[in-house]
Design goal:
Elements: H1 13-28, E1 36-40, H2 63-75, H3 88-97, E2 100-104, H4 113-135, E3 139-142, H5 151-154, E4 163-164, H6 190-198
Parallel strand pairs: 1-2, 1-3, 3-4
Length: 202
């Protein structure tokens, strides 16, 4: 079985196809010049919940996925009445025009927290090189406790000045790993906290 470049696991062809599909969906909304790279841990398990997945009338996105869309709209300063009344593609297009891009340290879903931490630990140097050579953002926001382990690698990579941290001096945290709005480090929403942190830099 082939080795996946996105997660390092031995996988079948279907796994590779799903990863390529996610990359193609994200590339459609990738800014030419990324002002703010938002780096999460790993994409959600279900394809319909992927941030850049096209909307479908036949598949309902999870509450967590809808919440992430709303939170990142706040980050980008995008006015959204609700994701039910605002077309998703319109939000993604505004997000792109603002120079924002959401990517993941691990490019494939990871089934549990413990395994996620291990995979990120193993992939950390690769993730930092990807940021340097591919994304080349002006600023970097980390979301999730597992990606906080990347922080020590930013200094030797010359990326430390690009990093925007939470009020606690670490990655921004949230209640659910897949990106919900449940905050675990303050009363404000995830989107509001990140927006406040980057407002003076843009």
């Amino acid at each position: 079985m082939p080795l996946c470049d996105g997660c390092g696991a031995h996988v079948d062809d279907a796994h590779i196809r799903r990863r390529i599909e996610r990359l193609e969906q994200a590339t459609r909304f990738r800014p030419i010049h990324i002002k703010v790279l938002i780096l999460g841990e790993a994409p959600p398990e279900h394809a319909r919940d992927f941030f850049y997945a096209p909307p479908s009338d036949h598949e309902l996105r999870s509450h967590t996925s809808q919440a992430l869309l709303e939170e990142l709209a706040i980050v980008g300063g995008i006015k959204v009445v609700s994701t039910a009344s605002t077309p998703k593609e319109a939000v993604l297009s505004e997000f792109q025009r603002g120079g924002f891009f959401l990517a993941y340290a691990i490019e494939c879903p990871v089934p549990n927290e413990r395994e996620l931490d291990q995979v990120i630990r193993r992939f950390a140097p690769t993730v930092v090189r990807r940021i340097q050579s591919s994304y080349r953002p002006k600023h970097i926001v980390l979301i999730g406790s597992a990606v906080a382990r990347l922080i020590p690698l930013f200094d030797p990579a010359g990326l430390r000045d690009k990093l925007i941290l939470s009020s606690e001096g670490s990655a921004f945290r949230y209640g659910q790993r897949t990106g919900g709005s449940g905050s675990s480090d303050g009363n404000d929403s995830l989107g509001s906290r990140i927006h406040s942190a980057i407002a003076s830099l843009l």
